[in-house]
Design a protein that fits this description.
The structure is a homodimer of 174-residue chains. The first copy, chain A, has 174 residues and is of the alpha/beta class. Chain A has helices at 15-27, 41-45, 54-58, 72-79, 97-108, 136-139, 166-173; strands at 3-6, 84-90, 117-120, 130-133, 145-149, 162-163.
Chain lengths: 174, 174
């Protein structure tokens, strides 16, 4: 059975939406994702003229209530029949996120066994057959097949097979 | 630079000692590690006649104050010059341990970067060159070299290169 490695932020959870809402709240702005079609997302929101969102991301609570991506629960559930599915999330940068991510996953994806959940920093330590992730840094060190999950911060990135939603993943992997 | 994968419980932290103390406390017994030289540790402590320690291990606090293994801090510090050292701990079985393990590690081993810390369930997902662990289930799925760290629950196990303390590891790996 092939091992499928699935990222959490911006793949299972719409973390960029929560980041953008946090940014808008503290900066009294009203940007939506489409505004960043021709901009570099993190570069834009980290400009000195804006209030930093980092304290909000570091605080307890930020990762507890992230919106779940459309169709992720059903497709992840069905993929278990064909793949050994692991959820691998970069989390150790934000220690307050560790338990929140665990409980978020257990809430939306109760069929994922605790054995198949990884919280880490550098994903180059992970081995598997297929990786779905939104960050080039994770895909480029992975030895198996790569799928880039479309995200507001990777619209400029080329050279990877891009998937835009979970229905596309279902068609590709089932 | 070779990647060295180091386990936490019973390798960096003396978790068996804490388990044995918890067991003695709730069962009003006075066993020490040497008593288990010719017994199977987990089989013995999980007998129906004894009060289970599982609720204590699942509760908040158990993993917060584990004793650190002798010489582990100094040897781990020095090994960073020669190896890319990752600490990989099975933790997702006990969600309350996640943040406690992070803070324990940050306290005793502040020189380990958050990028090099992994909390997981099944370690067969981990790749690297050398693994130091006390459990056969982790060593037997690892593709690199294995070192079995001597522990009260693995005294019966054969077929692995056994190390008894951190000074032995220093001699072997430096």
């Amino acid at each position: 059975m092939k091992r499928l490695i699935v990222d959490m932020d911006d793949v299972l959870a719409d973390t960029s939406q929560a980041i953008l809402e946090a940014f808008n709240t503290i900066n009294h702005t009203n940007y939506n994702k489409e505004y960043f079609r021709n901009k570099v997302f993190y570069e834009f929101i980290n400009q000195a003229q804006f209030e930093s969102i980092r304290p909000m991301i570091e605080a307890k609570g930020f990762f507890a209530d992230l919106p779940v991506m459309a169709d992720a629960v059903q497709v992840m559930h069905d993929l278990q029949a064909k793949y050994d599915v692991f959820v691998v999330s970069a989390a150790t940068e934000f220690p307050n996120s560790l338990e929140e991510k665990y409980h978020w996953l257990a809430n939306y994806f109760p069929f994922i066994h605790w054995k198949n959940f990884v919280l880490c920093g550098d994903k180059s330590i992970i081995k598997g057959d297929i990786m779905i992730d939104d960050h080039e840094k994770n895909l480029k060190t992975f030895e198996g097949e790569s799928l880039l999950f479309d995200a507001v911060h990777n619209w400029h990135l080329e050279g990877y097979q891009r998937v835009h939603n979970w229905k596309e993943i279902e068609l590709l992997l089932n």
